[in-house]
Design goal:
Layout (H helix, E strand, L loop, with lengths): L6 H8 L6 E4 L6 H9 L5 E6 L2 H11 L8 E6 L5 H7 L5 E7 L36 H4 L5 H12 L4 H13 L6 H9 L15 H11 L2 H15 E11 L2 H16 L5 E3 L9 H6 L7 E7 L1
Parallel strand pairs: 1-2, 1-4, 2-3, 4-5
Antiparallel strand pairs: 5-7, 6-7
Helix pairs in contact: 6-7, 6-9, 7-8, 10-11
C-alpha cells in the first residue's frame, strides 16, 4: 500500500483553497494529488503530470466516476520539467500551488501496481529502470558506458565510496551481456564490496541503484529545468513545495529557493526556514520517509 510522504506537512505548506489552480508534477500513486483535489473545490483547476504512463492511467482510474466540483481536471503523461510548455499548450494560467515529490513511488517497487521495471533490488525484474517506457532501458545503456563514466555516475549520484570497485565489476558484466535483470546488477555490485558493507545497515545495491535511476531518467536536469522556470509559471502568492530524498536534489532546491528569497528584490518568501522532516511516528509507519526533506516557498 502506498503511503504519501509528509502529506499533512505538504498540505499545511501549500494551503490549497477552493478556486485555486494546483499542479502535482509527480502523480505517482496519487496520494498527495487526491487530497489537493478535495481542497481546491469548488471552482479550482487541477493538473497532474507524470512521466510514467502507468501512473497516469492509475490516477485516472482513481478519479473515474467521482465528481469533483472543479472547473477543470487535467492529467498528462509529461515530465514536470515541461510544465511551462504544458501550461502554454493547454492555455492555462499561472499556478497557485505546485507540489513535487522527487522520490519514486512505492507502487513502482516490489508488489506495487506499477512494479516490474527493475527499480527494486529485492526482486528479479527486467532492468529497465525508466519512468517513460519510450526511453532506452538501463540494461541497453549500461554496456555503452565506459568504466570511467560509471565511476562518475555512481560516485556523483550515489555518493558511493566503493564507486570504482562497483563500476569495474558492473562494466565487465554489462559488456559481456550478463546484466539483463535487477538481480544480475545486484550480484555484480555485491561482488565488488566487502561482505560487511555498511555493517549491513543498508543493501550494497542501495546507492548504486539510486545513482543509475537518477542518471537514466535525467532527474537532476529535470529538477533544474523546473526550478529555473518557477518565476515565470508561479502566480503572485503562489506556493511551491518540493520533497527530496537525495542530498544533490536537496542542494539544488535549497540553492534556488535561497536565491529567490534573498535576491535584492526578493521574488519569494520561505514558508519554513528549515527543511521539514518526518516525525518519528511517520518514519515508523513509512520507513522511506526517513530521508525525505520538504522545502517550501511563497512567491511575492
Amino acid at each position: 500500500m502506498h503511503i504519501p510522504v509528509l502529506l499533512q506537512e505538504c498540505l499545511s505548506a501549500l494551503s490549497p483553497h477552493s478556486g485555486e489552480f494546483f499542479v502535482d508534477g509527480t502523480l505517482g500513486a496519487g496520494g498527495h494529488a487526491l487530497e489537493v483535489l478535495e481542497r481546491t473545490q469548488p471552482g479550482g483547476i487541477f493538473l497532474g503530470l507524470d512521466k510514467d504512463p502507468s501512473a497516469v492511467e492509475n490516477f485516472q482510474s482513481l478519479i473515474t466516476g467521482k465528481y469533483y466540483a472543479l472547473e477543470k481536471v487535467l492529467v498528462k503523461n509529461a515530465s514536470y520539467g515541461s510544465l511551462g510548455k504544458v501550461l502554454e499548450s493547454e492555455n492555462l494560467p499561472k499556478v497557485d500551488g505546485l507540489l513535487l515529490d522527487l522520490g519514486f513511488s512505492s507502487e513502482q517497487i516490489k508488489g506495487g501496481k506499477l512494479a516490474g521495471r527493475g527499480f527494486s533490488f529485492s526482486v528479479d525484474e527486467p532492468l529497465l529502470m525508466t519512468y517513460d517506457p519510450k526511453d532506452p532501458p538501463l540494461r541497453d545503456v549500461l554496456p555503452t558506458l565506459s568504466e570511467e563514466e560509471l565511476i562518475q555516475i555512481i560516485q556523483d549520484y550515489g555518493e558511493e565510496r566503493y564507486g570504482k570497485e562497483i563500476a569495474k565489476a558492473v562494466s565487465k558484466e554489462a559488456k559481456a551481456g550478463k546484466i539483463q535483470t535487477s538481480i544480475n546488477l545486484v550480484r555484480a555490485i555485491e561482488s565488488a564490496v566487502p561482505s560487511n558493507y555498511e555493517n549491513h545497515r543498508i543493501s550494497p545495491a542501495t546507492r548504486t541503484f539510486q545513482a543509475l535511476r537518477i542518471y537514466i531518467n535525467q532527474e537532476l536536469a529535470e529538477l533544474e529545468k523546473i526550478l529555473k522556470a518557477l518565476p515565470n509559471i508561479i502566480n503572485k502568492n503562489g506556493r511551491v513545495a518540493i520533497i527530496s530524498f537525495h542530498s544533490l536534489e536537496d542542494r539544488l532546491v535549497k540553492n534556488y529557493f535561497r536565491d529567490y528569497c534573498h535576491a535584492s528584490s526578493a521574488l519569494a518568501t520561505p514558508i519554513a526556514k528549515k527543511p521539514i522532516i518526518a516525525a518519528n511516528q511517520e518514519i515508523n509507519q513509512n520507513p522511506r520517509s526517513r530521508s525525505a526533506k520538504l522545502r517550501a516557498i511563497k512567491f511575492n
